[in-house]
Amino acid sequence: MNYYVSTRNENVKATPAQAVLKGLAPDGGLFVPDDLDSLKVNLKAMMNMSYREQAKVVFSLFFPDLGEKTLSDVLEKSYENKFDVPEVAPLVKVGDAYVLELFHGPTCAFKDVALSALPNLMTASAKHEDFKDHILILVATSGDTGSSALTGFSNVDGTDALVFYPEDGISQSQRLQMVTQSAPNVKACAIRGNFDAAQTGVKNIFRSVDQPAPGVSLSSANSINIGRLVPQIVYYFHAYKDLVDSRRIRIGDEVTFIVPTGNFGDIFAGWFARTMGLPVGRLVCASNENDVLTEFLTTGRYNKKREFHKTTSPSMDILVSSNLERLLYFICGSQKTAQYMEDLKTKGEYQITDEELLNIQGIFGTASVDSTRSAEVIRENFQGDHYLMDPHTAVAWGAMEKLLQTGELKQDEARVVLSTASPYKFSRSMLEALGQPERDTDEENMNALQEYSGVAAPDALLSLFSKEILHKDVIDAGDMQDYVIRTAENCRR
Questions:
Q1: Is the pTM of this model over 0.85?
Q2: Which residues are part of the catalytic machinery?
Q3: Which of 155, 231, 410, 448 could cross-link with 117 by S-S, CB 3.0 to 4.6 Å?
């Protein structure tokens, strides 16, 4: 692979380092590799590697210009002593399926796996490109990306990070993880509106603002940045290795992955893994009541003009799934992708062809699970296997059960459910699901959940309540650009 190209125009190109630094293509598209064939791996060799060794293979294919020594340094800084387990993402058997636990990082959410690496990838890319500007990272979050980004970029030289999050619709713990961040180069700001408003605002700023202040350039830590997406590929390979090592499967057997999905980044990392040679049977896209992706994967119609639901799985409360654009590019080509994105912007919807839909359905399954069923899944898994899963993971588990009932998934196939976060990030919803009385605060709810379940809460969450709230700004979505410019003017340079 030599270049990344825009999903909306193959003539818009960037080197891998440039793609990481820019985040978003200048035409509003997302960067994708220009040659998928060059990304193939030796699967048998990958099965004899540690997590970090697998990551080096993947990173080397997607970021070849950075070189092996630089990537080794990036990986050491990214994963050394950052996770409370040796191999970053353990695979745990629950019933007759498996949960890939992705919440063992510093903020107890799956975003940590990628956002422990992205700051180091970005600084390495800046050095490679002799990039002198200070970088202001803009992030829109539906809950977990924000805290992972602020933690990842804390005190990283040459960068500041600014996170926009919806004022309502996230848990108290998620909010505290952002507003108590003390590093001088990071900032969180609430907006009056939902995640889609925050994400649209950030995208519009990228399109309309070249430099928000002299000597300051913008980049992104959302999964629209290829440097954020690539690290997520690794845990698909490592989960497969764990299944081989436990003799659940043999090398070459297919595995189905069920992914709780909001912005389509986590599941698209699985699509990349499949393209690279991982034997993936199905990638199941699990949605909550905001089931815009279920409708799309069933009918080929993407319609954001629908009621927005606040649910117990807020990281999935999204109506515009940005990374779907990458899939459209590989299925439809850049010209049609650009048209579909224009239709979404101007009409609020688009419709792909039957042939395009069939190509997507050959890989992706889908099911939606509401908050009521998610709560039942939490209770059933705790009562049956003494396993606590957060509401997002429970949505994916419920989707798996739905598709087993319809026969789309088979009982004897290896099935891996990707987790989203520690259940203690949603302690109020967890207590309710388990039929226990809720308390007034998240701190009380965490302690009650810990006492009831016997499962220890992470120290990183329990310590939140003694920290000072430092970021208190709340703005209208229409004021985001002015806020960014003011922030850029005060960046450390």
A1: yes
A2: 111
A3: 231
